[in-house]
Design a protein that fits this description.
The chain has 474 residues and is mostly helical. It has 3 domains: 20-200, MFS general substrate transporter like domains (Growth Hormone, Chain: A), CATH 1.20.1250.20; 214-263; 267-474, Growth Hormone, Chain: A, CATH 1.20.1250. It has 16 helices and no strands. The longest helix is centred in the N-terminal third of the chain and has 36 residues, at 20-55.
Length: 474
């Protein structure tokens, strides 16, 4: 395999010798952080109809309960990842967990949709601080021979959060109220805080002494915010201008990062490594086409099919269960078969499942929806692990941190774009009004159109996935 040269990038991670207890404490902390993020996302999605009913919220504003969290995380992930490298990963992770626990508690006390969205913003900042440091600390304390295994455990924690979130969120919403979803996360956060203070004695800062790229961070944050706010207001002309401004600002960010001594985000891997660049692009497209499905189908099951939150959550488990079962298998196969082939097949299956789900109506059977979600989960499993394998295997060992951060950024940006598409469909078909029985036909049309767009995105993604080139030499 041929590696691309990036002479200006240095591997400055200090040598550390943590004891066994500290290593496994780091794994427990990283796994809990990896569990909390998808658990919070998927459980809150189930509670959205109940939240909307209590606050009498229109469909567009309701979507911001999920979107604000993702937007804040996406804006914060890159800067805090760099700050952690400069000032210490444990320090940033500790404060991230403090912010997450505090804002989870405050979100449970929200008095309006606007206040809930406000707390969700800071909750997203806390999660970004946790997410930016968890894997980085693991790679700092575990030897190379053990990293694949422990990273695999944290990935399993992600899928566990996805699987538990819908059912737990539905059960809590139905029996204890939607606020309990947030309140239960506060003590979980406190548990991690205690573990960090008690068990993690060392500190890890691979870029200590480097300057922080404030200008680049501001350009990046402004670009993401402008794009998301603009996309949610389309087809309004001012919103279209804001969306375009966000895209142009992202180009400006990429230009700026190639001209500073210590960039906040390493963009040169994208210009010099085709396998890496196209694999990241495939990840961006795939998350753009799949994340909003949980949001849309959970609303459909409760509004149109009349399911209680707990029952809707049980149905939604079908997708993450398939992901959990088949992701290890797909990853193992990609060690022997070219990853782009397995990942492309998975994306094709995802596209087909989304196309089938786009035909749903009020008379669609529950079995059909479950089958569609299971197929979606299977396609996701075939794509995710091999694509990650391709990304991490396309760079040299000293670039693993950069590659891992890039994957996280692609995931969050894809999730934001997915919610932007869903929000746009609501704005086009329903408008800024509460979802009531009178709006159900328009709601169904918005869901079907969004799923059709998602299917088309995945179909385009297959092209980029296949075009990434060979990872291994023949």
């Amino acid at each position: 395999m041929q590696y691309e040269s990036l002479d200006m990038i240095t591997d400055s991670e200090p040598t550390v010798s943590p004891d066994e207890a500290e290593r496994w404490s780091a794994l427990a902390i990283a796994s809990l952080g990896s569990f909390l993020t998808p658990f919070m996302l998927s459980s809150v999605n189930i509670a959205l109809p109940t939240i909307g009913k209590e606050f009498q919220t229109d469909a567009v504003l309701l979507s911001w309960v999920a979107t604000a969290y993702l937007l804040a995380a996406a804006v914060s992930l890159v800067p805090f990842g760099k700050l952690a490298d400069i000032h210490g990963r444990k320090k940033v992770q500790l404060w991230g967990m403090v912010i997450f626990a505090l804002t989870s508690f405050l979100a449970g006390l929200s008095w309006s949709a606007e206040s809930l969205i406000f707390f969700r913003v800071f909750q997203g900042v806390g999660i970004a601080m946790i997410f930016a440091t968890g894997i980085a600390i693991l790679t700092s304390v575990f030897p190379l021979a053990e990293r694949g295994r422990v990273i695999g455990i944290t990935v399993a924690a992600v899928y566990s959060g996805l699987a538990c979130g819908p059912f737990a969120g539905g059960w809590l919403t139905q029996h204890l109220g939607w606020r309990s979803i947030f309140l239960i996360n506060a003590p979980m956060g406190l548990l991690v805080i205690v573990l960090i203070l008690w068990k993690l004695k060392g500190e890890w800062a691979g870029a200590r002494g480097e300057s922080f790229d404030i200008i680049g961070s501001l350009i990046y944050g402004s670009a993401v915010v402008a794009f998301m706010i603009g996309a949610s207001g389309l087809p309004d002309l001012r919103s279209a201008a804001l969306t375009l401004g966000g895209l142009l600002s992202m180009g400006l960010f990429a230009w700026w990062e190639t001209r500073v001594a210590h960039p906040v985000f390493e963009v040169r891997l994208f210009t010099r490594n085709r396998v890496f660049a196209f694999s990241c692009l495939a990840a961006l497209i795939h998350y753009s086409a799949t994340f909003g499905v949980t949001f849309l189908i959970s609303l459909f099951l409760q509004y149109i099919k009349g399911f209680a939150p707990q029952d809707a959550g049980l149905i939604m488990i079908a997708q993450p269960v398939m992901m959990t079962l088949f992701s290890p298998f797909a990853g193992k196969v990609s060690d022997r078969v070219e990853p782009r082939m397995i990942a492309s097949l998975g994306m094709g299956i995802t596209s087909a499942s989304l196309l089938l789900l786009s035909t749903i109506s009020a008379g669609t059977s529950t079995g059909f929806i479950i089958a569609g979600l299971m197929t979606l989960g299977f396609g996701f499993a075939l794509f995710s692990s091999p694509n990650m394998n391709a990304i991490m295997s396309s760079v040299e060992k000293k670039y693993y941190g950069i590659a891992s951060g890039s994957v996280g950024t692609m995931r969050l940006l894809g999730q934001i774009l997915s919610m932007a598409i869903a929000t746009l469909m609501f704005a086009l078909f329903i408008g800024r009004t509460q979802i009531t029985p009178a709006q159900y036909p328009a709601f169904i049309q918005s869901v079907r159109t969004a799923l059709l767009v998602f299917s088309g995105l995945c179909l385009c993604g297959v092209y980029f996935s296949l075009s990434r080139g060979q990872l291994r030499e023949k």
